[in-house]
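The aim of this short unit is practical: by the end, you should be able to scan a pair of folded records and say something sensible about each. We start with the first protein, listed as its amino acid sequence and then its C-alpha cells.
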Amino acid sequence: MAQIGSFTRNEDGIYNGEIRTLTLRVKATIRPVERDHDKAPDHRVSAGGVEFGAGWTKVARETGAEYLSLKLDDPSLPAPIYATLTQGDNGEHKLIWSR
C-alpha cells in the first residue's frame, strides 16, 4: 500500500488536497453529496471541475474509526484506482492506494 495523496478537511466536511501517482498529479476536492439510495456514494471526487471518482463512508471493524473508501476512474487510467482516505497526523488525511 502506497500513499498517493494528502488532504485536509474543512469545517464543511470538504477535503482539499493533491493526488500523485506516476502518471497523475492533480489538485482534487472530495465533497459530501446527498444520497439518492443506499448504494449511492457519500462523496464525489473532482479535479478541475471534472468528476472522476466517488467515495463511501466506512467504519473499521477493529478500531471503529471512520474512513472513506474511494474509487477513482478516468479514461487516461488503465484501470480504476481504489483507495482509502484515513486520518493521519496533525489534521492531515492520507490517501492510500490498494489493489
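Turning to the second protein, read its sequence before its C-alpha cells, just as you did above.
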Amino acid sequence: MSIMNRTPSAWRTPARSARASATARALCAVATIGLWAVGCTRAEIVTLERSGQPMTVRRPALYPETIEYDRGRDRFLVSSFREGAIYAVDRDGGASLVVDDPRLCSVLGIAVDVERGRLWAVNSDLGASVKPSAAGPKNLAAVGVYDLSTGKAIHYVDLAPLSPGAHLMNGIALDSAGNAYITDSFSPTIYKVDPQGNAAVFLRDERFAGDGINLNGVVVHPDGYLLVVKKSDGSLFRVPLANPSRFSRVDVAERFVGGDGLILVGKKNLVLVANQASGVASNAAFSLSSEDGWGTARLRGVERLGDVYPTTGVLRDGKLYVIYSKLNELIQSSPEQRDRLRVEATIQQIGSAAL
C-alpha cells in the first residue's frame, strides 16, 4: 500500500474520528447480542477476594457437598452428605427441606434444570450417612431427578450395572438438551443420563483412574464439551460431547490437586475449588482462563481459604460463593464420633464475575 493512500491518525479530522468511534461502538453493540464483529470482544472478568460476612447454614450436621442457585426462587440449594437430602437455604441461612427421598443415602452433586423445572441429585454411599444404603459403602451408584418446585420424584436411575467395581458418584452437569453427565470418582467413568432417564456409559478410560478420589467436578461448556477435574492429581480434561474418546488434558502449567468443584464463567473463565488429596492441602479457589477453547489455560488468581475443606461453589448475581463444613472430618470419623459432630456449614463469598 502506498503511503499516499494512508491517513495518519494525526491528520484525521475530529469529525472523522467521532464517526469512527461511533461506528466501532455500534459494531460492538451488535457483537454483544451474538453477531460478533471484528476487533470486538466481550469482557469476562473474574476477581477472587473474600468479602462480606460468611453465612452460617442454620442446620447443624448437614454436611453439604454441593451448592447450587435456584434463580427462579432466589435460593441456594445444598446437598446433604450426612442426611441424604436436599435443602434450600434462604438469605438469612435458614434451611428448609426440598427433597427427602428414602432411596437417597449421601447426596453429592446436584444440578438445576431451570428450563424443565427439574433438580438432579447424585446418590452415593461412603458409610457416613444416617441412611445407610442396601447396596453398602462404595457400591451405591444412582441419580435421582425431582420436580424443582415440589421435590416430587420423576426418575431414579441405577448406574451401578453400567460399570463394574466400586463407585462414588460425585459431580454432575447438564447440557442445553437436559442430558446429565455424571462423574464416578472410584471408576474411571463418566455416565450420561437423558431427560427420560435412559443411562449409558459416556466415556470410560483408564487415564481417569488413580489412587483415592479421581474424577470429580464437571461443567458443560456451551461450545460442546465437558471440562472435568481429576482430584487425585489435579488434572483438568476437555471432553468433546460429540466424540468423547477424543478427550485431552488441558495444557496448563499447574496441577490442582484436591480439585473438587468447577464454576464456568462465560466461555473463557473457570473457577476451580480445591481441598485436599494425595497429601496436598490446597484449600483454595483458583481462577483460570483460556483463549483457545480450553486446549490451553493460564492461572490468573488464587484465593486461599484456610483449613476448611471447601468443596464446591456457585455464581449468584455476579458473586462467587463456596461452601464448606469440614466434610473430610465426617468421612474420616468413626461411627461413634460422627454422631457427635455438629458442624454448621458456611457459605462464603470469594469473589465476583462480570460478563
